[in-house]
Amino acid sequence: MIVLTNKFRVFASVMALAVSITALSACSSGNNSNNGGGSASSAPSGNSGAAAAGAKDTITALLPPVSANYQSNFDQMEKDFNALYPNLTLKIEPASWEDITQKLDTQVNAGSPPDIAFIGSDGISKYVEQGMLMDITKAATPEMVGDFDETPLNYMKNGSGLYGFPAYMSIQSIGGNKQFLEEAGIDWKSVQQNGWTYEEFRDAVKKGVVSSGGKTSRYGFVFATSGVTAKDYLNILIKNAGMPAAFNKDLKYAYTSKNYLTVLKAVRELIDDGSMPKEISSVDAGKRWNMFLTGQTMITGKGLATFENSAKANNAKIDAKDGAVEGSIKVDYVVLPVPTFAGAEAVSSAAVDGYVTFRGKKEPTQEHVANVVKAAYYLASGKVAATTNNELLLEQITQSGRDAEQGLTIDRDPDNAAASQRLQSIASPARPDIPTDLGAEAIKLEDEVIVPKFQALLAGEITPEDMYNAVKDAAIKKFGKDGVVED
Protein backbone atom coordinates (compact mmCIF):
# COMPACT_ATOMS: atom_id res chain seq x y z
CA MET A 1 0.00 0.00 0.00
CA ILE A 2 1.08 3.60 -0.52
CA VAL A 3 0.04 6.86 1.07
CA LEU A 4 -1.29 9.48 -1.31
CA THR A 5 -1.88 13.13 -0.56
CA ASN A 6 -3.11 14.03 -4.05
CA LYS A 7 -5.67 11.44 -5.12
CA PHE A 8 -6.89 10.58 -8.58
CA ARG A 9 -10.27 11.81 -9.80
CA VAL A 10 -12.90 9.13 -9.79
CA PHE A 11 -16.52 9.47 -8.57
CA ALA A 12 -18.61 9.50 -5.98
CA SER A 13 -21.68 9.32 -5.28
CA VAL A 14 -21.78 6.34 -3.58
CA MET A 15 -22.36 4.41 -0.44
CA ALA A 16 -22.28 4.28 3.33
CA LEU A 17 -20.09 1.80 5.17
CA ALA A 18 -20.94 -1.89 5.43
CA VAL A 19 -24.64 -2.79 5.34
CA SER A 20 -25.97 0.74 4.97
CA ILE A 21 -25.26 1.53 1.33
CA THR A 22 -26.88 3.35 -1.52
CA ALA A 23 -25.92 3.75 -5.13
CA LEU A 24 -24.27 7.06 -4.61
CA SER A 25 -23.37 7.54 -0.96
CA ALA A 26 -19.79 6.83 -0.06
CA CYS A 27 -17.64 5.33 2.65
CA SER A 28 -15.39 7.25 4.94
CA SER A 29 -11.64 7.11 4.96
CA GLY A 30 -11.76 7.92 8.64
CA ASN A 31 -10.58 11.53 8.57
CA ASN A 32 -13.13 12.76 11.09
CA SER A 33 -10.79 15.37 12.48
CA ASN A 34 -10.79 17.14 9.14
CA ASN A 35 -14.52 17.31 8.66
CA GLY A 36 -16.49 20.52 8.85
CA GLY A 37 -17.09 23.65 6.90
CA GLY A 38 -14.88 25.71 4.71
CA SER A 39 -12.28 28.17 5.80
CA ALA A 40 -11.35 31.64 4.68
CA SER A 41 -9.46 30.03 1.83
CA SER A 42 -12.85 28.95 0.45
CA ALA A 43 -13.75 32.53 -0.42
CA PRO A 44 -12.18 34.75 -3.04
CA SER A 45 -10.03 37.47 -1.58
CA GLY A 46 -11.74 40.78 -1.03
CA ASN A 47 -15.26 39.34 -0.81
CA SER A 48 -15.55 38.95 2.95
CA GLY A 49 -15.55 42.65 3.79
CA ALA A 50 -18.04 43.46 1.06
CA ALA A 51 -20.33 40.69 2.26
CA ALA A 52 -20.21 41.93 5.85
CA ALA A 53 -21.47 45.33 4.74
CA GLY A 54 -24.33 43.91 2.66
CA ALA A 55 -27.97 43.32 3.51
CA LYS A 56 -29.05 40.19 5.37
CA ASP A 57 -29.85 37.26 3.11
CA THR A 58 -30.56 33.53 3.43
CA ILE A 59 -29.38 30.93 0.92
CA THR A 60 -31.07 27.52 0.93
CA ALA A 61 -29.44 24.27 -0.16
CA LEU A 62 -30.82 20.74 -0.67
CA LEU A 63 -27.98 18.28 -0.10
CA PRO A 64 -27.75 14.44 -0.02
CA PRO A 65 -25.20 12.32 1.89
CA VAL A 66 -22.35 13.03 -0.53
CA SER A 67 -19.83 11.20 1.66
CA ALA A 68 -19.99 9.22 4.88
CA ASN A 69 -19.65 12.19 7.25
CA TYR A 70 -20.95 14.93 4.96
CA GLN A 71 -24.44 15.40 6.42
CA SER A 72 -23.19 15.16 10.01
CA ASN A 73 -21.22 18.35 9.35
CA PHE A 74 -24.11 20.50 8.13
CA ASP A 75 -24.35 22.50 11.36
CA GLN A 76 -20.65 23.30 11.28
CA MET A 77 -20.78 24.15 7.58
CA GLU A 78 -23.61 26.62 8.24
CA LYS A 79 -21.70 28.21 11.13
CA ASP A 80 -18.45 28.50 9.17
CA PHE A 81 -20.22 30.07 6.20
CA ASN A 82 -21.87 32.63 8.46
CA ALA A 83 -18.50 33.39 10.07
CA LEU A 84 -17.09 33.97 6.60
CA TYR A 85 -20.07 36.11 5.52
CA PRO A 86 -21.70 37.56 8.69
CA ASN A 87 -24.66 39.00 6.79
CA LEU A 88 -25.49 35.68 5.10
CA THR A 89 -27.22 32.56 6.42
CA LEU A 90 -26.80 29.17 4.77
CA LYS A 91 -29.79 26.95 5.50
CA ILE A 92 -29.21 23.32 4.52
CA GLU A 93 -32.02 20.81 4.05
CA PRO A 94 -30.81 17.17 4.13
CA ALA A 95 -32.12 14.62 1.65
CA SER A 96 -31.41 10.97 0.91
CA TRP A 97 -30.14 9.80 -2.45
CA GLU A 98 -33.44 8.01 -2.93
CA ASP A 99 -35.69 11.04 -2.40
CA ILE A 100 -33.66 14.07 -3.45
CA THR A 101 -34.94 14.08 -7.03
CA GLN A 102 -38.56 13.86 -5.90
CA LYS A 103 -38.06 16.59 -3.31
CA LEU A 104 -36.34 18.84 -5.80
CA ASP A 105 -38.91 18.32 -8.55
CA THR A 106 -41.75 18.99 -6.11
CA GLN A 107 -40.17 22.29 -5.16
CA VAL A 108 -39.35 23.16 -8.76
CA ASN A 109 -42.91 22.44 -9.88
CA ALA A 110 -44.18 24.68 -7.09
CA GLY A 111 -41.94 27.46 -8.36
CA SER A 112 -39.90 27.62 -5.14
CA PRO A 113 -36.79 25.45 -5.50
CA PRO A 114 -33.81 25.75 -3.15
CA ASP A 115 -31.13 28.19 -4.20
CA ILE A 116 -28.65 25.32 -4.47
CA ALA A 117 -29.21 21.60 -5.02
CA PHE A 118 -26.64 18.84 -5.29
CA ILE A 119 -27.42 16.98 -8.53
CA GLY A 120 -25.66 15.30 -11.41
CA SER A 121 -24.52 17.58 -14.20
CA ASP A 122 -26.52 15.46 -16.66
CA GLY A 123 -29.70 16.89 -15.13
CA ILE A 124 -28.82 20.50 -15.87
CA SER A 125 -30.44 20.60 -19.31
CA LYS A 126 -33.75 19.40 -17.85
CA TYR A 127 -33.99 22.31 -15.44
CA VAL A 128 -32.62 24.85 -17.92
CA GLU A 129 -35.42 23.82 -20.25
CA GLN A 130 -37.90 24.49 -17.45
CA GLY A 131 -36.40 27.93 -16.91
CA MET A 132 -35.61 27.19 -13.28
CA LEU A 133 -31.82 27.42 -13.22
CA MET A 134 -29.76 30.48 -12.41
CA ASP A 135 -27.01 31.34 -14.89
CA ILE A 136 -24.09 32.49 -12.77
CA THR A 137 -21.71 33.29 -15.63
CA LYS A 138 -21.58 36.98 -14.77
CA ALA A 139 -21.86 36.61 -11.00
CA ALA A 140 -19.02 34.11 -10.59
CA THR A 141 -15.77 36.00 -10.13
CA PRO A 142 -12.71 35.15 -12.25
CA GLU A 143 -10.99 33.99 -9.06
CA MET A 144 -13.81 31.52 -8.37
CA VAL A 145 -13.90 30.16 -11.90
CA GLY A 146 -10.12 29.98 -12.13
CA ASP A 147 -9.99 27.82 -9.00
CA PHE A 148 -11.60 24.88 -10.82
CA ASP A 149 -10.02 22.43 -13.23
CA GLU A 150 -11.41 23.07 -16.69
CA THR A 151 -12.82 19.64 -17.54
CA PRO A 152 -15.15 19.21 -14.54
CA LEU A 153 -16.17 22.88 -14.67
CA ASN A 154 -17.31 22.41 -18.27
CA TYR A 155 -19.79 19.78 -17.09
CA MET A 156 -21.67 22.52 -15.24
CA LYS A 157 -22.23 24.46 -18.45
CA ASN A 158 -25.03 24.30 -20.96
CA GLY A 159 -24.68 26.34 -24.08
CA SER A 160 -23.06 29.60 -22.99
CA GLY A 161 -24.39 29.41 -19.44
CA LEU A 162 -22.71 28.30 -16.20
CA TYR A 163 -25.19 26.80 -13.74
CA GLY A 164 -23.17 26.00 -10.65
CA PHE A 165 -19.87 24.56 -9.49
CA PRO A 166 -18.71 20.92 -9.61
CA ALA A 167 -18.06 19.03 -6.38
CA TYR A 168 -16.02 16.24 -7.92
CA MET A 169 -15.32 14.26 -11.05
CA SER A 170 -15.71 10.51 -10.67
CA ILE A 171 -15.03 7.63 -12.99
CA GLN A 172 -17.72 4.96 -12.90
CA SER A 173 -16.34 1.58 -13.87
CA ILE A 174 -16.36 -1.94 -12.41
CA GLY A 175 -14.34 -3.70 -9.74
CA GLY A 176 -13.20 -7.19 -8.88
CA ASN A 177 -12.25 -9.51 -6.03
CA LYS A 178 -8.48 -9.95 -6.42
CA GLN A 179 -8.43 -13.49 -5.04
CA PHE A 180 -11.26 -14.67 -7.28
CA LEU A 181 -9.72 -13.03 -10.35
CA GLU A 182 -6.41 -14.78 -9.73
CA GLU A 183 -8.10 -18.12 -9.06
CA ALA A 184 -9.85 -17.77 -12.43
CA GLY A 185 -6.51 -17.12 -14.14
CA ILE A 186 -7.35 -13.53 -15.08
CA ASP A 187 -4.40 -11.18 -15.49
CA TRP A 188 -6.09 -8.26 -13.77
CA LYS A 189 -2.98 -6.08 -13.89
CA SER A 190 -2.91 -6.35 -17.67
CA VAL A 191 -6.61 -5.51 -17.80
CA GLN A 192 -6.02 -2.44 -15.62
CA GLN A 193 -3.23 -1.27 -17.91
CA ASN A 194 -4.58 -2.26 -21.32
CA GLY A 195 -8.33 -2.69 -21.00
CA TRP A 196 -10.31 -5.54 -22.56
CA THR A 197 -12.91 -6.25 -25.20
CA TYR A 198 -16.38 -7.54 -24.46
CA GLU A 199 -15.38 -10.95 -25.80
CA GLU A 200 -12.43 -11.08 -23.39
CA PHE A 201 -14.62 -9.87 -20.56
CA ARG A 202 -17.33 -12.43 -21.23
CA ASP A 203 -14.79 -15.25 -21.24
CA ALA A 204 -13.36 -14.00 -17.94
CA VAL A 205 -16.67 -13.73 -16.09
CA LYS A 206 -17.63 -17.22 -17.20
CA LYS A 207 -14.52 -18.48 -15.40
CA GLY A 208 -15.63 -16.70 -12.26
CA VAL A 209 -18.92 -18.62 -11.97
CA VAL A 210 -19.11 -21.32 -9.30
CA SER A 211 -22.04 -23.74 -9.55
CA SER A 212 -22.89 -27.08 -8.02
CA GLY A 213 -25.97 -29.23 -8.38
CA GLY A 214 -27.60 -26.67 -10.61
CA LYS A 215 -27.23 -23.92 -8.01
CA THR A 216 -24.89 -20.96 -8.47
CA SER A 217 -23.00 -19.84 -5.36
CA ARG A 218 -20.89 -17.25 -7.17
CA TYR A 219 -21.57 -15.25 -10.31
CA GLY A 220 -18.94 -13.82 -12.59
CA PHE A 221 -20.57 -10.38 -12.72
CA VAL A 222 -23.26 -8.51 -10.81
CA PHE A 223 -24.35 -4.95 -11.55
CA ALA A 224 -26.95 -2.95 -9.62
CA THR A 225 -29.86 -2.17 -11.93
CA SER A 226 -32.75 -1.37 -9.57
CA GLY A 227 -33.85 1.86 -7.93
CA VAL A 228 -31.51 4.83 -8.31
CA THR A 229 -29.09 2.65 -10.30
CA ALA A 230 -31.59 1.85 -13.06
CA LYS A 231 -29.77 3.98 -15.64
CA ASP A 232 -26.17 3.29 -14.67
CA TYR A 233 -25.45 -0.11 -16.22
CA LEU A 234 -26.55 0.68 -19.75
CA ASN A 235 -25.10 4.21 -19.72
CA ILE A 236 -21.68 2.93 -18.69
CA LEU A 237 -21.64 0.19 -21.32
CA ILE A 238 -22.76 2.24 -24.30
CA LYS A 239 -20.02 4.81 -23.78
CA ASN A 240 -17.60 2.05 -24.70
CA ALA A 241 -19.53 1.20 -27.85
CA GLY A 242 -18.81 4.44 -29.70
CA MET A 243 -21.60 6.44 -28.03
CA PRO A 244 -20.02 8.62 -25.32
CA ALA A 245 -23.08 10.90 -25.32
CA ALA A 246 -26.72 10.80 -26.36
CA PHE A 247 -25.86 12.92 -29.41
CA ASN A 248 -22.91 12.73 -31.75
CA LYS A 249 -20.89 15.76 -32.81
CA ASP A 250 -23.45 16.45 -35.57
CA LEU A 251 -26.15 16.56 -32.88
CA LYS A 252 -27.83 13.42 -34.18
CA TYR A 253 -29.32 11.11 -31.54
CA ALA A 254 -26.77 8.34 -31.13
CA TYR A 255 -28.68 5.46 -29.57
CA THR A 256 -30.23 4.42 -32.87
CA SER A 257 -26.80 3.10 -33.91
CA LYS A 258 -26.45 -0.62 -34.53
CA ASN A 259 -23.84 -0.62 -31.76
CA TYR A 260 -26.65 0.10 -29.29
CA LEU A 261 -28.26 -3.19 -30.27
CA THR A 262 -24.88 -4.92 -29.90
CA VAL A 263 -24.72 -3.81 -26.26
CA LEU A 264 -28.30 -4.89 -25.57
CA LYS A 265 -27.52 -8.35 -26.95
CA ALA A 266 -24.45 -8.56 -24.75
CA VAL A 267 -26.52 -7.73 -21.67
CA ARG A 268 -28.84 -10.66 -22.35
CA GLU A 269 -25.95 -13.00 -23.19
CA LEU A 270 -24.38 -12.48 -19.77
CA ILE A 271 -27.68 -13.34 -18.09
CA ASP A 272 -28.56 -16.24 -20.35
CA ASP A 273 -25.19 -17.99 -20.01
CA GLY A 274 -25.36 -17.78 -16.21
CA SER A 275 -22.58 -15.22 -15.75
CA MET A 276 -25.10 -12.85 -14.14
CA PRO A 277 -28.16 -13.65 -11.99
CA LYS A 278 -31.46 -14.05 -13.80
CA GLU A 279 -32.94 -11.84 -11.07
CA ILE A 280 -30.52 -9.00 -11.90
CA SER A 281 -33.37 -6.53 -12.48
CA SER A 282 -34.15 -6.62 -8.74
CA VAL A 283 -30.56 -6.05 -7.56
CA ASP A 284 -30.16 -2.61 -6.04
CA ALA A 285 -26.96 -0.94 -4.86
CA GLY A 286 -27.09 -2.37 -1.35
CA LYS A 287 -27.70 -5.94 -2.48
CA ARG A 288 -24.99 -5.64 -5.15
CA TRP A 289 -22.38 -4.61 -2.56
CA ASN A 290 -23.57 -7.24 -0.09
CA MET A 291 -23.14 -9.91 -2.78
CA PHE A 292 -19.62 -8.70 -3.46
CA LEU A 293 -18.59 -8.69 0.20
CA THR A 294 -20.08 -12.13 0.81
CA GLY A 295 -18.28 -13.71 -2.14
CA GLN A 296 -21.33 -14.16 -4.36
CA THR A 297 -19.72 -12.41 -7.32
CA MET A 298 -16.23 -12.03 -8.75
CA ILE A 299 -16.80 -8.65 -10.44
CA THR A 300 -19.21 -5.93 -9.38
CA GLY A 301 -20.53 -2.71 -10.85
CA LYS A 302 -20.76 0.10 -10.90
CA GLY A 303 -17.34 0.44 -9.38
CA LEU A 304 -16.12 3.56 -7.63
CA ALA A 305 -12.75 4.45 -6.15
CA THR A 306 -14.17 4.57 -2.64
CA PHE A 307 -15.16 0.90 -2.81
CA GLU A 308 -11.54 -0.01 -2.07
CA ASN A 309 -11.87 1.85 1.20
CA SER A 310 -15.25 0.29 1.96
CA ALA A 311 -13.87 -3.22 1.47
CA LYS A 312 -10.95 -2.39 3.78
CA ALA A 313 -13.35 -1.14 6.44
CA ASN A 314 -15.32 -4.38 6.32
CA ASN A 315 -12.10 -6.40 6.42
CA ALA A 316 -11.12 -4.58 9.61
CA LYS A 317 -14.51 -5.35 11.14
CA ILE A 318 -14.06 -9.03 10.28
CA ASP A 319 -10.73 -9.01 12.11
CA ALA A 320 -12.29 -7.24 15.07
CA LYS A 321 -15.34 -9.54 14.95
CA ASP A 322 -17.46 -6.44 15.30
CA GLY A 323 -20.03 -5.12 12.87
CA ALA A 324 -18.95 -6.76 9.61
CA VAL A 325 -21.53 -7.59 6.96
CA GLU A 326 -23.08 -10.93 7.90
CA GLY A 327 -21.42 -13.80 6.05
CA SER A 328 -18.79 -11.53 4.51
CA ILE A 329 -15.26 -12.55 3.59
CA LYS A 330 -12.09 -10.54 3.32
CA VAL A 331 -11.87 -8.80 -0.05
CA ASP A 332 -9.08 -6.93 -1.83
CA TYR A 333 -10.90 -4.61 -4.23
CA VAL A 334 -9.43 -4.24 -7.74
CA VAL A 335 -10.31 -1.29 -10.01
CA LEU A 336 -11.23 -2.57 -13.49
CA PRO A 337 -12.22 -0.83 -16.74
CA VAL A 338 -15.49 -1.45 -18.56
CA PRO A 339 -15.00 -3.62 -21.67
CA THR A 340 -15.24 -2.17 -25.16
CA PHE A 341 -17.77 -3.20 -27.81
CA ALA A 342 -17.70 -3.49 -31.60
CA GLY A 343 -14.12 -2.23 -31.93
CA ALA A 344 -14.86 1.11 -30.30
CA GLU A 345 -12.25 3.06 -28.35
CA ALA A 346 -12.30 2.83 -24.57
CA VAL A 347 -14.03 5.78 -22.92
CA SER A 348 -14.49 6.12 -19.18
CA SER A 349 -17.85 7.15 -17.83
CA ALA A 350 -17.18 10.43 -16.05
CA ALA A 351 -19.76 11.55 -13.54
CA VAL A 352 -19.59 15.14 -12.40
CA ASP A 353 -21.99 16.10 -9.64
CA GLY A 354 -22.14 19.45 -8.03
CA TYR A 355 -23.89 22.44 -6.57
CA VAL A 356 -26.40 23.60 -9.16
CA THR A 357 -27.95 27.05 -8.77
CA PHE A 358 -31.73 27.42 -9.01
CA ARG A 359 -34.13 30.34 -9.22
CA GLY A 360 -37.82 30.66 -8.48
CA LYS A 361 -40.57 32.13 -10.63
CA LYS A 362 -39.62 35.65 -9.58
CA GLU A 363 -36.47 37.24 -10.97
CA PRO A 364 -33.81 37.16 -8.21
CA THR A 365 -32.01 40.35 -7.31
CA GLN A 366 -28.40 40.76 -8.36
CA GLU A 367 -27.43 40.79 -4.70
CA HIS A 368 -29.13 37.46 -4.06
CA VAL A 369 -27.53 35.92 -7.14
CA ALA A 370 -24.12 37.03 -5.90
CA ASN A 371 -24.85 35.54 -2.48
CA VAL A 372 -25.95 32.22 -3.94
CA VAL A 373 -22.73 32.09 -5.93
CA LYS A 374 -20.72 32.67 -2.76
CA ALA A 375 -22.52 29.79 -1.06
CA ALA A 376 -22.13 27.42 -4.01
CA TYR A 377 -18.44 28.23 -4.27
CA TYR A 378 -17.98 27.79 -0.52
CA LEU A 379 -19.45 24.28 -0.71
CA ALA A 380 -17.48 23.30 -3.83
CA SER A 381 -14.03 24.49 -2.79
CA GLY A 382 -11.55 24.80 0.04
CA LYS A 383 -11.90 22.75 3.20
CA VAL A 384 -15.42 21.47 2.49
CA ALA A 385 -14.36 20.06 -0.88
CA ALA A 386 -11.04 18.74 0.42
CA THR A 387 -12.67 16.84 3.28
CA THR A 388 -15.47 15.39 1.16
CA ASN A 389 -13.27 14.31 -1.73
CA ASN A 390 -10.74 12.85 0.66
CA GLU A 391 -13.45 10.61 2.10
CA LEU A 392 -14.41 9.54 -1.42
CA LEU A 393 -10.80 8.85 -2.53
CA LEU A 394 -11.23 11.51 -5.19
CA GLU A 395 -8.65 13.90 -6.50
CA GLN A 396 -9.34 17.53 -5.73
CA ILE A 397 -10.63 19.55 -8.70
CA THR A 398 -9.91 22.99 -7.22
CA GLN A 399 -6.60 24.55 -6.28
CA SER A 400 -8.14 25.67 -2.99
CA GLY A 401 -9.11 22.06 -2.33
CA ARG A 402 -5.60 20.88 -3.07
CA ASP A 403 -4.23 23.49 -0.70
CA ALA A 404 -6.71 22.52 2.03
CA GLU A 405 -6.02 18.80 1.74
CA GLN A 406 -2.36 19.18 2.69
CA GLY A 407 -1.77 16.86 5.60
CA LEU A 408 -4.74 14.63 4.75
CA THR A 409 -3.49 11.16 3.87
CA ILE A 410 -5.13 7.98 2.66
CA ASP A 411 -3.87 4.45 2.08
CA ARG A 412 -4.36 3.48 -1.54
CA ASP A 413 -3.33 0.40 -3.46
CA PRO A 414 -0.77 1.59 -6.05
CA ASP A 415 -2.23 -0.58 -8.83
CA ASN A 416 -5.68 0.84 -8.20
CA ALA A 417 -4.28 4.35 -8.12
CA ALA A 418 -2.60 3.86 -11.49
CA ALA A 419 -5.72 2.25 -12.95
CA SER A 420 -7.86 5.14 -11.78
CA GLN A 421 -5.42 7.60 -13.32
CA ARG A 422 -5.63 5.78 -16.66
CA LEU A 423 -9.42 5.77 -16.56
CA GLN A 424 -9.44 9.45 -15.76
CA SER A 425 -7.21 10.17 -18.76
CA ILE A 426 -9.82 8.69 -21.13
CA ALA A 427 -12.87 10.22 -19.45
CA SER A 428 -15.76 11.23 -21.67
CA PRO A 429 -15.68 15.00 -22.28
CA ALA A 430 -18.42 17.42 -21.33
CA ARG A 431 -20.92 18.30 -24.06
CA PRO A 432 -22.17 21.82 -23.36
CA ASP A 433 -22.74 22.15 -27.11
CA ILE A 434 -25.85 19.98 -26.92
CA PRO A 435 -28.79 22.42 -27.03
CA THR A 436 -31.01 22.55 -23.98
CA ASP A 437 -34.11 21.38 -25.80
CA LEU A 438 -32.34 18.35 -27.27
CA GLY A 439 -30.82 17.43 -23.92
CA ALA A 440 -34.17 17.68 -22.17
CA GLU A 441 -35.88 15.57 -24.83
CA ALA A 442 -33.14 12.93 -24.52
CA ILE A 443 -33.71 12.75 -20.76
CA LYS A 444 -37.46 12.34 -21.32
CA LEU A 445 -36.85 9.55 -23.82
CA GLU A 446 -34.53 7.86 -21.33
CA ASP A 447 -37.04 8.08 -18.49
CA GLU A 448 -40.11 7.18 -20.53
CA VAL A 449 -38.73 4.54 -22.90
CA ILE A 450 -35.17 3.39 -22.21
CA VAL A 451 -35.38 2.74 -18.46
CA PRO A 452 -38.64 0.75 -18.49
CA LYS A 453 -37.65 -1.16 -21.62
CA PHE A 454 -34.24 -1.96 -20.15
CA GLN A 455 -35.85 -3.29 -16.98
CA ALA A 456 -38.07 -5.48 -19.16
CA LEU A 457 -35.03 -6.68 -21.09
CA LEU A 458 -33.20 -7.58 -17.88
CA ALA A 459 -36.27 -9.48 -16.67
CA GLY A 460 -36.48 -11.43 -19.93
CA GLU A 461 -39.83 -9.94 -20.87
CA ILE A 462 -38.63 -8.50 -24.18
CA THR A 463 -35.76 -9.19 -26.58
CA PRO A 464 -32.84 -6.88 -27.38
CA GLU A 465 -34.40 -6.28 -30.78
CA ASP A 466 -37.70 -5.29 -29.17
CA MET A 467 -35.99 -2.69 -27.01
CA TYR A 468 -33.81 -1.38 -29.81
CA ASN A 469 -36.79 -0.90 -32.12
CA ALA A 470 -38.78 0.83 -29.37
CA VAL A 471 -35.94 3.26 -28.68
CA LYS A 472 -35.39 3.89 -32.37
CA ASP A 473 -39.08 4.52 -33.06
CA ALA A 474 -39.33 6.92 -30.11
CA ALA A 475 -36.16 8.74 -31.17
CA ILE A 476 -37.37 9.22 -34.75
CA LYS A 477 -40.67 10.52 -33.41
CA LYS A 478 -38.86 13.05 -31.19
CA PHE A 479 -35.95 14.09 -33.40
CA GLY A 480 -37.05 13.18 -36.93
CA LYS A 481 -35.48 10.65 -39.26
CA ASP A 482 -32.76 13.12 -40.16
CA GLY A 483 -32.05 13.79 -36.49
CA VAL A 484 -30.91 10.27 -35.57
CA VAL A 485 -27.88 8.16 -36.41
CA GLU A 486 -28.45 5.72 -39.26
CA ASP A 487 -25.65 3.20 -39.72
UniProtKB/TrEMBL annotation:
InterPro entries: Bact_solute-bd_prot1 (IPR050490), SBP (IPR006059). GO terms for cellular component: cell envelope. Its main location: other. Keywords: Signal, Transport. Residues 1-25 form the signal peptide. The keyword Signal applies. It comes from the Bacteria. The keyword Signal applies. Pfam families: SBP_bac_1 (PF01547). It is found in: Cell envelope. Belongs to the bacterial solute-binding protein 1 family. This is Extracellular solute-binding protein.
